[in-house]
Amino acid sequence: MSVARRSVLRGAAAGAAGVGFATVGTVPSLAQATPGPRHSPFPAHRPFPPLLDDPDGILALPPGFKYRIVTRAGETKLTTGQPTPSLHDGTAVFDAGRNKYLLIQNHEVGSANALGVPPIEGTVYDAGVGAAGGCTVISVDRDGKNLGEWVGISGTLTNCAGGHTPWGTWLTCEETESKANGTTRLKDHGYVFEVWGDGKTAHPVPLKALGRYAHEALAVDKDRNHIYLSEDASGPNGLFYRWSAPHGYKLGPTSWRQLADAGFGTLEAMAILGDDGKPIPDVAYLTSAQLLRPFRVAWVPVPDRDAVSVSCRKQFTDDKVTRGKKFEGVFGTDEGVYVVNSYAEAGTADLPADAVPHDGMVWFYNYRARTIQLVTYFPDNAAADKGSEARYDDYNFDSPDNVTVTPWGSLVLAEDGNASSHVLSSTPGGPTYAIVRNMLNDSEFTGPAFSDDGKVLFVNLQTPGITFAITGPWRDYLG
Q1: Contact criterion met (CB below 8 Å) for 415 and 30
Q2: Which value, to the nearest 10 degrees, does the dihedral of the CA atoms of residues 32, 34, 35, 39 take?
Q3: Three-class secondary structure of residue 31 per DSSP
Q4: What is the spatial distance between Cα 400 and Cα 434, in angstroms, rounded to a whole number?
Q5: What is the C-alpha separation between 132 and 110, in angstroms, rounded?
Q6: 313 and 236 in contact (C-beta within 8 Å)?
Q7: Which of 68, 90, 78 is nearest to 118 (CA)?
Q8: 14 burial class (0-12, 13-18, 19+ CB within 10 angstroms)?
Q9: Is 299 exposed, middle or buried, given 0-12, 13-18 or 19+ CB atoms closer than 10 A?
Q10: Which residues of 414-442 are buried (b: 16+ CB within 10 A; e: fewer)?
């Protein structure tokens, strides 16, 4: 998520806004392999109406919806008095009871910064990095009113996305491969860390079993036997990974002790198999012509998951795995897991010369069938690639990044592309609608997450660092 494609500042640059509303299996039948997140294989909903411009120049929303600003970097305050850190990213929502939620939020800060996450005693992994990346925890009421914010973990770097666990914690991902240098980094980085749902991180230890690489996001399967993880990296492109528990072991609240061991369980990289049974070297060889077609998947063990001398993705030749430009958002359901590739640009080293450029792919891996399907495809958008706005910008989308599954089974995607930036509603195998547009600047949206009751969508603008609570008749359109 750290490599953005934006180049055009657009919209009314509103002034500071106050807080308020304004291994391989047989190929199954399509019915078996089609994603069915919660109820129906193809969750349907009403089309969203056109977005209405915001008189305050911040968010364009459909009629009947409103937003509240929950936090704003440098303006709202932590309970310790320091300002809210910047670069808001992946976010999870937990029901805290008594009509309250807890948000656990990443801050993608890569080095010591005035608006980095302050190193609070008991939360620090690496004291050498100072106020850099980490997570904050935000208590809010059912309308999104800020009731207090504090540090969950600090002393980490470039906390991008992550994933919630079935036992109510947040696994935060470092999108870096930086190693200790004895000065500004006293420890290696590129790990996953666990932050407790009550906002307390009693053990800020790296979960080395999940590998050391440029982590983006992850999902734990419903049986608590596997964790699926994405890698946002280039030169060569990143991979999609699966961690598997030893036979008979189930993940739970104390698993951090075992996951701290780099030899615990098995870490493997995905290979999408073509009709000849051989791995397809890059996801960009597939296009909308393969939409909803199930492909068999093989999982290939990572030789050295702690990447002592060679990066995990560089330990494979291209004939062994399937790479992808910008493996990004990951979100799991009872049946499988969604994973996003943001884009692949023509004329770059990150797109094989004979592959097809695209502006976004969303995949669904089916646990039972052990197949993967392309469920949403954004074709290469020449206008967006040039940084200009399309004439009908609320119909033209590029570079999906974070993904979440709504309580009704459809998807919400956050764009990190060029030109207009949107939050999108997308039905696997079906249409995509703009549900929010950034009118403030050219920042990406990050961390979309619904409350369990479906009443509030929380989402962030990474720059300048704003968290929004958006309320309205979500069920009318998504249910």
Answers
A1: no
A2: -70
A3: helix
A4: 12
A5: 6
A6: yes
A7: 78
A8: middle
A9: buried
A10: bbbbbbbbbbbbbbbbeebbbbbbbbbbb
Residue pointed to by tokens 């393969």: 290
| Distance separating alpha carbons of residues 427 and 266, to the nearest angstrom | 33
Per-residue pLDDT of the chain (479 residues; tens, 9 = 90+): 654 454 333 233 333 333 333 332 322 332 333 333 444 445 556 789 999 999 999 999 999 999 999 999 999 999 999 999 999 999 999 999 899 999 999 999 999 999 999 999 999 999 999 999 999 999 999 999 999 999 999 999 999 999 999 999 999 999 999 999 999 999 999 999 999 876 666 579 999 999 999 999 999 999 999 999 999 999 999 999 999 999 999 999 999 999 999 999 999 999 999 999 999 999 999 999 999 999 999 999 999 999 999 999 999 999 999 999 999 999 999 999 999 999 999 989 999 999 999 999 999 999 999 999 999 999 998 776 776 777 778 888 999 999 999 999 999 999 998 888 999 999 999 999 999 999 999 999 999 999 999 999 999 999 999 999 999 999 999 98
Instruction: Give pairs for 95-98: CB < 8 Å, separation 24+.
Output: 95/451, 95/452, 96/139
Phi, psi of 112 (to 5 degrees): -55, 135
The pair of three-digit structure tokens given for residue 229, joined into one six-digit string? 């993880």
Which pTM value belongs to this model?
A: 0.91
Both tokens of 316, joined, read 């494979």
Torsion of CA 333, 153, 72, 469, to 10 degrees: 30
SS (H, E, C) 368-403: CCCEEEEEEEEECCHHHHCCCCCCCHHHCCCCEEEE
Instruction: With CA atoms as reference, report the closest residue to 464 among 446, 451, 449.
Output: 446
Contacts of 379 (CB under 8 A, 6+ apart): 288, 358, 359
Tokens 């119909």, located at residue: 395
Point out which residues pair with 403 in neighbouring strands: 413
> Rounded to a whole number, what is the largest CA-CA distance in the chain?
61
Per-residue tokens: 261:
């061991």
Decide if 401 contacts 20 (C-beta within 8 A). no
- CB contact at 8 A, 414 and 394: no
Give me the count of residues in the chain. Answer: 479
Which residue from 342, 362, 372, 361 is spatially nearest to 274, judged by alpha carbons?
372
